[in-house]
From TrEMBL:
PANTHER family: FLAVIN REDUCTASE (NADPH). One of its GO terms (molecular function) is biliverdin reductase [NAD(P)H] activity. This is Putative NAD(P)-binding protein. InterPro entries: NAD(P)-bd_dom, NAD(P)-bd_dom_sf, Polyketide_Oxido-like. It comes from Prauserella shujinwangii. Coiled coil: none annotated. Residues 22-218 form the NAD(P)-binding domain.
């Protein structure tokens, strides 16, 4: 087979640049690693105080320190990028999540692939079916976190609403509960929570990142909000035949 990368390396990212917004977190660092493995040039954005967390990538990535919801920081970071991978965290009470999403939507170049992360609680079309336990947990956790001014889940909902309404080439990857551990391979996905394939509700963080990076080159995922689950989980093994 002919090598597919533009420089003849056969790597899908050869000659392309991606930006990882929120690069210093656990998911962010896996995103950086997968992107480098695929030959992409990587630009990472993280808070100034977190730059040392990326020391292991020194010399291999460009780091732009700053708040991820700062339009000037994002404008600089996404310049010339073919894709932007955004860890959409709903921290604090200052619209961090929606501010981050908006900055990416406003400044990524037209036609760039935009891949965002969030949890299963986000629904695109209202057709997700959540268990009573999940709804109760989400309601209680959301309320307590908001009261404590730590996490604002409503702002992540708003961030995703803006992404869904945009005319960009977006994918919103909706993750199950995450765990550490060796890769099980590319997670399986479904359009809607409630699909039995997702019942195990568990994905390795390394594979969540893998799914996001693979989505960059997968046009079938443009304008999709795949809910994902680990491919070796019991529910995926039992039902993956019917899933995407
Ligand atoms: N059940 C789950 O846990 C679950 C399921 C599905 C999807 N997700 C998604 O996974 C993503 C994060 O997961 P993770 O495992 O990578 O978590 P993580 O390692 O804790 O990363 C969290 C991110 O939030 C940033 N952050 C932490 N405190 C902050 C603050 N006070 N202000 C601004 N930014 C702050 C971190 O940046 P610093 O390095 O600068 O601290 C880092 O980029 C989110 O997009 C979440 O929606 C989670």
């Amino acid at each position: 087979m002919e090598p597919s990368g533009v420089d003849g390396t056969g790597l899908p990212g050869a000659g392309k640049r991606v930006c990882v917004v929120g690069a210093s977190g656990k998911l962010g660092q896996y995103l950086v690693r997968h992107a480098l493995d695929r030959g992409y040039e990587v630009v990472g954005v993280c808070r100034e105080r977190s730059v040392p967390k990326l020391a292991g990538f020194e010399g291999r990535i460009t780091v732009i320190p700053g708040a991820t919801d700062d339009p000037a920081v994002i404008a600089r970071a996404v310049r010339g990028c073919d894709a932007v991978l955004t860890v959409l965290v709903p921290w604090g009470r200052n619209h961090y999540s929606s501010g981050t999403a908006q900055a990416v939507l406003d400044h990524a170049r037209p036609g760039a692939r935009l891949v965002f992360s969030c949890g299963w609680h986000i629904t695109r079309d209202g057709k997700d079916e959540y268990t009573r336990r999940f709804r109760l947990y989400a309601a209680v956790f959301g309320r307590l976190a908001k009261l404590a001014r730590v996490v604002d889940v409503d702002d992540q909902v708003e961030a995703c609403r803006r992404v869904f309404a945009s005319d960009t080439r977006w994918t919103v990857v909706r993750g199950s509960d995450l765990e550490e551990g060796d890769s099980e391979g590319l997670p399986v996905w479904s359009r809607h929570v409630g699909d039995p394939v997702l019942a195990s509700n568990r994905t390795r963080r390394v594979d969540y990142a893998l799914f996001m990076v693979e989505a960059v080159e997968n046009d079938a995922l443009v304008h999709e909000a795949p809910a994902i689950v680990g491919r070796l989980t019991p529910s995926a093994r039992a039902h993956a035949g019917g899933a995407a």
